[in-house]
Structure formats: structure tokens, C-alpha cells
Amino acid sequence: MNIGNVSGGFQSQIQDNREPEKRPIEVVVADKSPLILNGLASIFDNDDRFNLVATAADGERFIEALERFRFDVAIIGWNMPYLNGQGVLQNVQKREGVQPRLIVFTGNGAPDIARQVMRFGGAGFCSKTDQPAQVLETVMAVAEGRMVFPFMDLSRSGADPFSSLTAREQELLASLSRGQTNQQIATDLTISLNTVKFHLKYLYGKLDVKNRAQAVACYLNASGNM
Known about the structure:
Layout: H1 2-16, E1 25-30, H2 34-45, E2 50-56, H3 59-68, E3 73-76, H4 85-94, E4 101-106, H5 113-119, E5 124-127, H6 132-143, H7 167-177, H8 182-189, H9 193-207, H10 212-223
Parallel strand pairs: 1-2, 1-3, 3-4, 4-5
């Protein structure tokens, strides 16, 4: 009897100390190419971290999926029939309430597409030349609230709309454009987390924005005009 009680208590203690399993990330994929849809569906179906909710062959069908299902992240094409990537992003921007975070996945090599994705509220950008593991990592990062975009050098030639920023503030803005968290920025720049928040407050004030998404969007928008 005593052995049974001890054993039962020990098993209960082990069970209580287990970390709760994370909920799979709910994903929707939209692209005009059946090959891309099938390929991404296969990647997500074979990874327990994700749950593929639906696929859509064009922008209009994606909006229908948006109205029917709840999900965390969507990967959408840029050049889609009926409603392209820009149209989808603008549609989602106008909607009230919490919306899924959108990643544009495209083979279009135009250099300004990443800027447009950010400008219209996208959370990430992937090229169809990226490896599958990189695409999955991007989805994971975006689901965690990070922004993932190609880095653009702040020192590019041309008129600098951020000439009033200090060197430290320019470093912070560059880190934001790489999708880094406050803690990662603090580690990379060897400063405290509170110092990062202090600098970001003044950075947002100078750019007349409210958060990091708007700060990076402001930078990308200006960079596109250089």
C-alpha cells in the first residue's frame, strides 16, 4: 500500500513538471501555381509544428478562406489572378480585429517588392529560391511576432530621410529591419534592454510612428524613393 502511494505520487510529480505542448501554428497557403501549393502543403503536413488549414489558388479565394477560417500565418504569392498580393495585403489592412500575419512568397525578382510588402502591412518576405527550412523558420519567426525582411543598407547613396537620427538610432533601425527582438538588439549592441527601449522611444518620436512595424515601413517607403 505504501509503495503504491509513493509510486503514484512520484508519477504525479513527473507529470506536473512536464512543459505543456505548444499549439501547432495554423497556416493557410495561397499561390497561383499548383506545384507551389502542393509543395508547401507537403512541407507543412510533414512538420508537427504546423497545421495546414487551407490552400487557395488566387487572392479572392484566399479572402474567402480568411472569412471562413481562423489561422495564425498565411503564405501568399505576389502575382496572383483576380486579386494579387498587394490587393490581399490592402484588404487585410482594412479589416478590424486581430488578423493573421502575412508572408509574401514569390519568385518575382523586382527589388522593390519587399518594400511594398512592408508598406502594405506584410510581416515577412520569402523568395522561391529559399530553402524549405528557411521558409519554415520564417513562418516560425512571424508567428512569434517578428518581422522578417531582407536587410537593406541604410548607407545607400541618395537623400537620407533619416539624417536627424543619431548613429545609435540608425543602428537600432537597421536591427529592426532585420526583424530582431529588443533582447537580440541589446545583446548585439552590448546595451541593456531598458536602454534599447529608451532609444526606440526617441526613434519612434523622430519618425512620428507608434511602433517598430511603422518605423520599418517608414524606412522602406523612403528607401524605395532613393
